[in-house]
Amino acid sequence: MTATTDTREITYAEAVREALGQAMESDDRVFLFGEDVGTYGGAFGVTGDLVHRFGEDRVRDTPISELGIVGAAVGAALAGMRPIVEIQFSDFTAQAMDQIVNQAAKIHFMLGGAAEVPMVLRAPGGSGTGAAAQHSQSLEAWFAHIPGLKVVMPATVADAKGLLLAAIDDPNPVVVLEHKLLYKQSGPAPQEATRTPLGKAAVRRTGTDLTIVATGVMVSRALEAAEQLAAEGITATVVDPRTLKPLDEQTIVDTVTATGRALLVQEAPRSGGFMSEVSAMLCDSPAFGYLRAPVRRLCGLDVPIPYAPQLERAAVPQVPDIVAEATKLVREW
Amino acid sequence: MSSPEQWTHPQPGDSSAATAAKPTPEQVIAGLRATSEGGADLVQLLTPEGERVDSPEFDRYVTDIDGARLRSLFRDMTLVRRFDREANALQRQGQLGIWVPLLGQEAAQIGAGRALRPMDMAFPSYREHGVAWCRNVSPQDLLGIFRCSDHSGWDPVAARFHPYTIVIGNQVLNAAGYAMGQRFDGHVGDDDGEATICFFGDGATSQGDVHEGFVWAAVYDAPLVFFCQNNQWAISEPTERQSRLPLYQRAQGYGFPGIRVDGNDVLACLAVTRWALDECRTGNGPMLIEAFTYRMDAHTTTDDPTRYRLSDELEAWKLKDPIERVRAYLSRNGLADNDFFEEIAAEADNFAAEIRDFCVNMPDPPPDRIFSEVYAEPSPVLEAQRAEYLSYLDGFVGAGER
């Protein structure tokens, strides 16, 4: 994390692949499996050439069976391995939920700590690729609701690498929700295997008028909105929680205390969403006394993601929506 | 029907069609090869060269297929293939969001589709354009889905054709439930009975859904034909990644018959599916058919098969083309002349032009479609969001003039 690290521009997908490769190089217990992760290199090209570098024993194509994939990972983790599984679309975690929720998350607790489940489940979520209702969901709230799971949503290239490396190190099951739209985006990332600690938010930009808390692909949209807002004389702090569970409440509370306004932005539908939890947390916190405006949530509509591209865009917050909502919040309060 | 041995070794005619439903020790040792060859158990009525081979068990199911009817099957397959190729081209030209090619699977789908009676029910995956054709679901309705205009464009009850199911294997459970209902409602038991057919692929057989569907259909004696099109590839994964046993042999473990048919032979697919549906409608369901075929194009237009398979394989399967063998048979036996083939080719061209014209002129859905049909009844929350969104959009009207 210092001068010894050479940083260069790579894509988000390359950053994930680099983390996987470095983890496998440094730890024989680490291996990957999932659908089309071998020769094909992953449905989104994330695993790429890893099968050629590490062989089919460590990069395994599995039967088309998500429940089997996660169940095998739980078993491997219990046996002392460090399995990393890819679920081709995060929507298909629904097929594997019993193993995730009833096994992976609970085994350590139910065995009184006698065993750990150090596994990583990677899955791409989110809309924007024209993949329709069953391939576009943002399901982070499901996982954040389950005690025993950790949940991260890398929003930058560096975090795609750093959070994944930290997740692989972690002795708990960690759900890593990548975003399909980010895979091809470029950004700086360290060459070395630098960890981004779990449970630590990033303040991406500092301002005085409001705090925007955003996750996943909404982080870059919030930053773009903040740029436009600055031209209008409104300055925003942008916080990227990075880890949803455990949540870095302190950073959110501190920044909202400083600005007095909070706009919480997520792609997922509002009802029962993760930002509802952040909103409630803020109202339970000392930041409440410093609020000059109601805490606002800007979320996806409470509808399945439509297939038609123009409707798909309308279903989730876009940059102009964030600008408009932030302007209203500052001007009206 | 007195012993499991008989249940798992069906006797469609005078003799057993699946007595060889066990791999040899050599096959077991070789393991995976058993899944990748047609094998001796393959039911075939028309060879790749277009020669009719006798089948004591199954000839009786296609005695009505004279020259006219075979020409009709040829026409079905040709038009469906032309539709498929046109849709693929439309996707490449940006007119469709995605396309799921059926190229190479025409015989399996037309054979199975034409075996259905009007009151039978069909549950497709997302590649069954040929079955949709047989169910009178128009290609135009299919295009709406793939152009991102809407999710599904037909009435599944009226068409007796369930909506396309995108998530792998889900429809098998739905089909099991439907077929159980047919039995509970007393629609099964004689020659006028109903049956259900469920389509899925080799990859889906690894899903828990398919296992559970097999179990439920079996223990409730559901009139359900499981129709597995083994097209050899689940995106990049060959069938060996799903099973070490020929897929049709799985049925034995669940207690119902399984049979493997040449999926590129429309006559055999028609005969075997008619037999299986008849068994089901008279009360002897369920049944598993493995149609041994080949996906000649990509998994979808987002896939690139050159990344994982050799072109030699495709070339080998081209010699088993489902349409060409029917053309050869019709020609050789004087059942069709050049005029017929030219007529069909011209019809296919016109059909493709109609499809293209319809596709590019399809209207976009209205912007507030997004709020419709989330729930069965109007939702006050969504209606409020609809009003807010429409008023937001109204704000842009005339905005350029100021």
Automatic annotation (TrEMBL), chain A:
Pfam families xref list: Transket_pyr, Transketolase_C
Superkingdom: Bacteria
Keyword Oxidoreductase: yes
InterPro entries associated with the record: THDP-binding, Transketo_C/PFOR_II, Transketolase-like_Pyr-bd, Transketolase_C
PANTHER family membership: PYRUVATE DEHYDROGENASE E1 COMPONENT BETA SUBUNIT, PYRUVATE DEHYDROGENASE E1 COMPONENT SUBUNIT BETA
Protein name (database record): Pyruvate dehydrogenase E1 component beta subunit
UniProt keyword annotations, A-Z: Oxidoreductase, Pyruvate, Thiamine pyrophosphate
MF (Gene Ontology): magnesium ion binding; oxidoreductase activity
Tagged with keyword Oxidoreductase: yes
Domain Transketolase-like pyrimidine-binding, residue spans: 10-185
Cofactor(s) listed: thiamine diphosphate
From TrEMBL, chain B:
Domain Dehydrogenase E1 component: 76-350
Record GO terms (molecular function): magnesium ion binding; oxidoreductase activity, acting on the aldehyde or oxo group of donors, disulfide as acceptor
Entry keywords, A to Z: Oxidoreductase, Pyruvate, Thiamine pyrophosphate
GO biological process, one term: branched-chain amino acid catabolic process
Chain positions covered by the region annotation Disordered: 1-26
Cofactors named for this entry: thiamine diphosphate
Biased composition (Polar residues): 1-18
NCBIfam families according to UniProt: PDH_E1_alph_x
Protein name listed in UniProt: Pyruvate dehydrogenase E1 component alpha subunit
Organism: Tamaricihabitans halophyticus
